[in-house]
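Researcher: Please translate sequence to structure tokens.
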Amino acid sequence: MDHQGLFWMGVKLFNAGEFFEAHEVWEEVWRESEEPDRSFYQGLIQFAVALAHLERGNQVGFERLVQRAEEHLAGFPASFGGIRLGELRRQVAELAQWLADLKPGHHPYPRGDSYHTLRENETPHANPSIFALISGVKITLDGEATPQS
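Model: Translation complete:
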């Protein structure tokens, strides 16, 4: 599969909540890319892995990878590579802020269940769980994008 096909496959996996799998697909593209695309893919990969860490309860890993992703994506416009990059960055920042605003001692993971156990049965409430928030992070296309199937 060509780079564009792999990129769109990664977007589809990411939007399905398969963050680790998206990262694996994007790494194939990243390895053969040159700047500025290389930094763009690196930032997306780091967002995907950050979300995978968070769904496993590793908040420190999430925070570190989000910071590194932001460093890689800092110079990119709000729309780049066919996606609304600014929107994705906003969603991840809101999730990070939600975690930062938790009261001391509050554990965001209900009953210690894993994300994969809960996500299929979860419906967002006025006070959504961490899993609903993670699964709500999506990549949106800019108006001119034409993803490949």
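Researcher: Any highlights?
Model: Residues 112-127 have pLDDT under 50 and may be disordered.
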